[in-house]
Amino acid sequence: MTEINIEGLIRSLVTPLIGHPDALSITQSEDDRFQRYVVDVHPQDVGRLIGRQGHIASALRTIVEGARPRRSNSKRIRLLINDHRH
Prior knowledge:
Blueprint: H1 6-14, E1 25-30, E2 34-40, H2 46-50, H3 55-67, E3 76-82
Parallel strand pairs: 2-3
Antiparallel strand pairs: 1-2
């Protein structure tokens, strides 16, 4: 079975949703339980990416988590959106 490029999947899902695709950056890190992907976008695009009541962000997380391999030793994927408030 082929390995899924999670970063490429996130990029292809997020790019059509935002108005400033040149400002998109995705940072990956790992710990013992999770693979973390932090999505940074232009501050004007944060609301578009999160959506009303977080529906778009939730849908993105569902798709990305569903794409991970189902091996017993595969780490869970955590998708974080940097909202520039902290």
